[in-house]
Amino acid sequence: MQRATFITLILGLAFVNVSSLVRAGTLPDITGTWYANGDAAKRCEITQSGTSVTLRNEQGRSATGRFTDPGTLDTDWGYFGGHHIRGAISSNLRRIDWSNGTYWTRASSSQPTPTPNPYRELHFASVSLSRESGPIAVLDGWGAVRRNGQAVVICVSFKNVQPTAATRVVFDFALKNRDGETVETLHLDRRGTFSQNIDIRGWQSLDAWQSAVGHRGYGDNCVKQEAGVGAVSLLTARIVSYRIEQVEFADGTTWPKP
Length: 258
Fold this sequence. Notes:
By secondary structure, the protein is mainly beta. It is built from 3 helices and 16 strands. It has an 8-stranded antiparallel barrel. Strand 2 (43-49) and strand 3 (52-56) form a beta hairpin. The protein starts with a helix and ends with a strand. Mean pLDDT is 79; it is low at 1-21, 128-132 and 212-217.
């Protein structure tokens, strides 16, 4: 009887010690810049607060997560990001191996130098159409033009705010110079199934977009143009403004109404 009681006490102490590691601030510090698959051009970020973490991958997608123990993360990337992905943190805190077969690393001293980007960023201006006046909310957007003016790329993030799923969203992107004159207009015809209040993300920054070039293409939410672009005009482009031209829904209706 005494022996059984002793074993119970030992097990109880072991349980308290393990759980307290996660609660008591003895977790490893993994905050900072990471690199997807060890590639210096694929920047990722992690911030942590207590047992909780916030992550951003090389594509600009964000996730939340938590420590399940000092060496393991459980992260949630949502429907389009693979849902729950577990990460195993190395003992030297320089590598995280993810359950989807990828890994992140960080340098032990100085960070690697990112690959030079031949593009310059354009300011994305909202509002040819306010989000309150239509069925599509534009969350953010981003544009870049090659420094020689020979190519331009525009990306956008949006969500459908209507109960009925949208199946097509048509955007117009006007590139404007300092004087507000339109020097080029690009069109994005985005088709798919866009359910209510689901974020449809495009690249969110120059670093995130550059990390995809030559690896994953430009993404469904981006439009790129090279041939026929006026180099001199594009070199003066400073601002991208957007307009939502048309939205089609799964029930056969359209916006604006014909």
